[in-house]
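User: Predict the structure for this protein chain, please.
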Amino acid sequence: MGNEWRVDSIDRKRFNCPCKNGYYEKVTTTMSDDYLRTDEEIKYSMECESCKILYTYRSFYGWILKSDNQKLEQQEQLINNELKSPKEYILGKYKDQMVNFLNNKPRTQWYKKWRDVCHYTNTIQTFRKYTNSIEDFLINYGNFYGYRCILEWMGIEDPIVEEEYKIKIDELRDVKRDILNSIEKKAFR
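Assistant: Here is the predicted structure, written as structure tokens:
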């Protein structure tokens, strides 16, 4: 007998849209499976034609202006692009040192640092599986803040990393934070 998910209920609710001339709909689908697990899926759809042109739904914030969403996506892209240069620089200069250093550290100690600094969410077992090759892990799963943590742990202070890359990335993140604060104030829930 295979595991099958089935729909237990579908709940539809209508709410006034931002212009108050129409509505948006929230559809909550509740499901369960043969092993008594449950899941819930929530979808939002704007049914007002004039608001559909202006708004998009973004988790956590609600209905936000499409222009604000575009600004946020552009800023996130700038940050992602800016994070590529320090990754190339750090791996090019320190990869072998980091691999040697991490080879001599217990995985649990390394995992805790990676989890706390990089917001790594996988379990220790998954982490161990991915760190069979430390070099591959650094290349495929590493990020700027994780690399900085490892360099700090190794006692290495690189002025290019701290003064050039970190400052630029922090400035971009400050702009993103301002955009998010603006979105939060204007969002329609």
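The chain has two domains: 6-58, 70-186.
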